[in-house]
Amino acid sequence: MKNRRYAAWLVWTGLLLASFSAQATNYVFPDHMPSSCSGDDGYYLCKSLTLLEGDTLVVEAPKPAVIQINGDFNVGQGVQINASGLATHLLIQNFSRSVFGANVKINAHLVSAGDIALGAQSDTSGSITTDSGTIAIGDKSRVVGDLQTSNAIVYIGDGVKLTGSVSSTSSGVISVGNGSTVSGALTTAVGAINVGFDSVVGPITSTSAGAVTVGARSTVKGDIITGAGAVSVGDGGYIDGSITTIAGVVTVGVGATVRGSINNLDTSKAGAVNINSKSIVIGYILTNAGAITIAADGQVGGGLGTKDGAITVGTAARIGGSVCTDNSGAVTVGAIATVGGNVETNTAGAITIGSKAIISGGVIVHGAGAKVVSADATVGNYIVSSCPTAAPNANWRTIKSRSWRQLLIR
Q1: What's the rounded mean pLDDT across residues 106-127?
Q2: Is the distance from CB of 265 to CB of 349 less than 8 angstroms?
Q3: Per-residue confidence at 85, pLDDT binned at 50, 70, 90?
Q4: What is the dihedral of CA 215, 318, 392, 232, to 10 degrees?
């Protein structure tokens, strides 16, 4: 809903600016400035500033220069600002809001106290920063520079190419549209982070609290970390790192890949982990309080461990390490599934091993709970020190099972 609202806002501002009509003017600071501006020697002050469709703005020596705008900054479509210069040569500081039409070209650092809206198919070089205003980047735009706001939303449209990072230093939602690329990190202190489908972004962090959603077939080049919030990876998604949340459900869609591990019991307090069919997690999966479910044909290179929570390994799923629960939690291993280590429950929890399943290690109920092993299942010898290293009970052991590569090529 927020994405739609800001997309509509971009359309509205684009139509507003497109409605301006005048003969294009070439402004040169300080020799030929708009009537609302004054100043010299590299520092210019404007009561407000409106550039109409096709206007150009050039800043002459001395450089770098500063243009301070105390009112609204409205820029029509096709405007060029310092187009042949360097972004480091011009700082535009606005104490109100800044609205840019489509197809603008800007080489400058932009700082605004209010909202900044960049129209579609624009080309900018330089950082974009607001104190408490929203940043909205129109579809198919190119931005070279970081986006930063203190306490507001950052919206990046579809097909955008952003070379830089995106951050909200206090609180604010970050949304990246479909088919977009962000080379740097997405970071917010408090707030959700949403990535559309077919996009590529850097590491994702919501420091204190906020859900993270990664759309279908999108790639995250790094870890996903949230203090408290659910993490959802869409079908065919690719996470080139680990996923960690202190409290929140983690869901990995069909055919997705996580190159690292999911959760860490040093930090993960609560949350189920659901791995859908044909997905691959290269590392281990751990959670303090919550079930772990590996759907049919899912693959996990390391072990599975919960302190309080059931573990279900689906039909034909393959687990490279041991499968262990501590205080409470039953373990179910489906038919023709493979486990490269032990299957263990420590204090209380039943174990069920399905037909033609292969367990390389032993099947042990250390405390209370029934053990049912199908007659045609294969069970090996107990492997000492096989439960995941970050398991909640300090007496649990390090992994000594076959490597995930050996298991996944079976």
Answers
A1: 96
A2: no
A3: very high
A4: 10
> Pick the residue with more confidence: 240 or 247?
240
Lookup result for tokens 């929140």 = 248
Q: 296 by DSSP, 3-state: which? A: coil
Does residue 18 have a pLDDT over 60? no
Which residue is listed with tokens 């011009």? Answer: 90
What is the model's pTM?
Answer: 0.87
Residues 151 and 132: beta-carbon distance below 8 Å: yes
Span 337-345, average pLDDT: 96
Cβ–Cβ under 8 Å, residues 309 and 391: no
User: How is residue 24 written in tokens?
Assistant: 């294009």
Under DSSP, is residue 405 helix (H, G, I), strand (E, B) or coil?
A: helix
* Continuous H helices in 185-296: none
Give whole-number Cα distances, 28 to 49, 58, 60, 76, 287, in Å.
14, 5, 7, 17, 62
CA distance to 174, 255, 274, 282, 314, per residue, from 298 (Å):
31, 8, 10, 11, 8
Encoded tokens for 203: 């590491």
Query: Residue 57 is inside which H or E element, if any?
Result: strand 56-59
Residue 10: both structure tokens together: 């971009």
Q: What pLDDT score was predicted for residue 233? A: 98
Question: Higher model confidence: residue 271 or residue 311?
Answer: 311
Average pLDDT, stretch 375-383? 95
Sign of the Cα torsion 110, 112, 117, 119 reads negative
**How remote is the C-alpha of 293 from its chain's centroid?**
23
Structure tokens at 292: 């772990």
Rounded distance between C-alpha atoms, residue 283 and residue 274, angstroms: 15
Q: What is the DSSP string of 357-392?
A: -EESS-EEE-SB--EEE-TT-EE----SS-S-TT-S
Residue 300 to residue 206: CA distance in whole angstroms: 26
